[in-house]
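Lab notebook, bench 4. We co-purified these components, and the gel suggests they stay together. Before we commit to crystallization screens, I want a quick structural picture of the whole thing.
Request: model the full complex, all chains together.
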Amino acid sequence: MKIVIVGNSVAAINAIEAIREKDKISSVAVVSDENYRAYSHPLLPNLVIGEVSRSEDRFYYRRSDFYQKNKVNAILGKRVVKINPKSKTIELDNTEKVEYDKLLLACGGKPAKPPIDGLELEGVHTLTNIKGADKLRKDLKNINHCVVVGAGLIGSKVAEKLAKKKVKVTLVELARRVLFPVLDDKGADFIHKELKRLGVNLILNDSVKALDGSNRVEQVVLNSGKRIKADGVVVAVGVSPNIDLAKDAGLKVDKGVVVNDYMQTSDESIYAAGDVAQAYDVVYGSKRPIPILPLAARQGRTSALNMLGMDVKYKGGFPMNSITIGKTSFISMGIVDSDELEILSFERDGEYRKFLIDEDNRLKGMILVNNVEKAGMFNWMIQNKFDVSWIKDAFLNSDFGWKYFNKAFRVLRLDRKIK
Amino acid sequence: MKIVKIREDNCIFCHLCEVACIVEHSQSKDIIKAFKREEKPIARCSVEFNYPVSLSVMCRHCDDAPCVEACQNGSMHRDDRGYVVVDADTCVGCWMCIMACPYGVIKRDTRRESWGLSTKCDFCPDREIPACVEACPNEALTLEEI
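Here is the predicted assembly.
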């Protein structure tokens, strides 16, 4: 069988690993427009300020012999321009055609473009791949005051890193708090304090209207009318799934590429996984793209096993994030803010715990700030729709752990008898 | 594959498993030096106590380890023996493994200068029997096939 994978990051690499665990014979080709081996996207802000370099192993997602060891034909630096589902071929930008029996779309997302005038000016950057990071890194010498647009994961992280590099940073966020979808007001306040302590000028409830300058950006104009002198801008307002290829090929697309429970698209020979796919969210009970690394890995594996004909259902996932800004670490998952769910919360001595539980006593989401080590236990409860009625009283204890569980359950779990 | 079986009824809350783990993962592997002269490693097992319950918990070395799936740069991986271990040279301390671990048994070591380090049971690669199992005086931790 000929398996072709479009994209060369988390979903693709995990698909390759799953394929090779089961099948040493089929040919596997990976096509990516980026001319590098798979790397760690979360480290891009570190790469910008030189905390990590491209010569270090820790920057990469797998070691350098990965493709050779897994007998993968890595076609790097070539863009896929078209998928022909009828003839089961893809066309590359050098007019070369590649045949497939099964195709995996793992082409991720692209930076969303906000409606701002002047994005084409010099000194305006995005940070979703190596190219963007390199461009920003080389431009750092020209940047004294940087405006970061959007306080999401990338925006907050890059603001922190640039401030650490003694660049004057202004972080502009449309919402009333940073990291809006992954923290509530109280949790975000921890991050606000950290950012301020690092010297980041934080502007909330405002957005950027235009970037002014003759050649290079000189000034940022906000919707409130405020003007900020700046010689660098990082636009980080999120990513959107790269659905163009799938759409042009006639596949069913919505916000992302629509897949069934087996990560199969509307064409039975084509699968999709990772940031590009619109898969099941167990917390919301509907399908939507959730662009996070652990789900890309799981979807990559699942889609690969199904391409090999193994009938493995994707059980669904939910948003989860682990972030450290300054000295504050937090892990949050699922729904983090709600008026309808039962809320348990606790804050003391720099620790914050919050749990959101529905009327059926199922955990729907949680936030842990600073005391995060047991976070995964809650992850398991959310994923498995665990009845928390008899354990939720212990959730707010800082020393939450196995000792609070019912003995029979604890023994079965720790013996790996309940997955 | 063998893992450490936890027999909580036998646990006497002595913490010797933690001591043995610390010594095993110290530079000198000497108890006095490990506790007095070196930077003391973090114990990979944790003894929990909630009267009358006490037990030591450590990595269950899952087949489909979610921590490996969540790792951003392959630091968390399965070694040649099949156990899940961290490559300390490449771990960046993002704690995504902690976010994923269904047993809550990965700890944070934040003492390194530039990167945090996820710390977990490595099933004592230099030993036949893990140090915690050998140190347990009452067979509350035993080595068993799963």
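The helical segments of chain B are 16-24, 31-36, 66-70, 96-100, 131-135. Worth comparing against the SEC data before the next meeting. The mean pLDDT of chain B is 97.
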